[in-house]
Amino acid sequence: MFRRRSTEPRDRHDPILDRIERAKAELVAAVPSPRGVPGRPLADAVAAFEDGLREAAAAADVPDAWRAAIRESLVRAERLRLEAPALDYEGLVGALADLLAPLDVLDA
Q: pLDDT exceeding 90 applies to what percent of the chain?
């Protein structure tokens, strides 16, 4: 009835990890390119990031550490969305890094 979670490292082509990586890419798309190409609107990028993380978290076999990291990133994304600060380039990069930081556990 209860499934034991594996302690083995997950395959790098794991569909959950793939979905999280796509969500991260959606978020990073908000950063303008050095050649002057504007980034994706921040609100759209954050919404896509949140949607992707929620989809990944909905899988039945998400490791507890990943689930906690996803939850923390979602809390930070909501805070950014609600506060809606004006961000210059450095502020934007810092804010996005803050949203991504909890997901570093996936690289371990």
A: 77
Residue type, 21: E
- Boundaries of domain holding 34: 15-107
Q: What is the pTM of this model?
A: 0.85
**84 domain-assigned:** yes
89-100 and 42-57 helices, crossing angle to 10°: 10
Contacts of residue 87, Cβ cutoff 8 Å, sequence gap at least 6: 42, 95
Measured between alpha carbons, how far is 36 from 42 in angstroms, rounded to an integer? 16
**Cβ distance 30 to 42 under 8 Å?**
yes
Q: 97 phi and psi, to 5 degrees? A: -60, -35
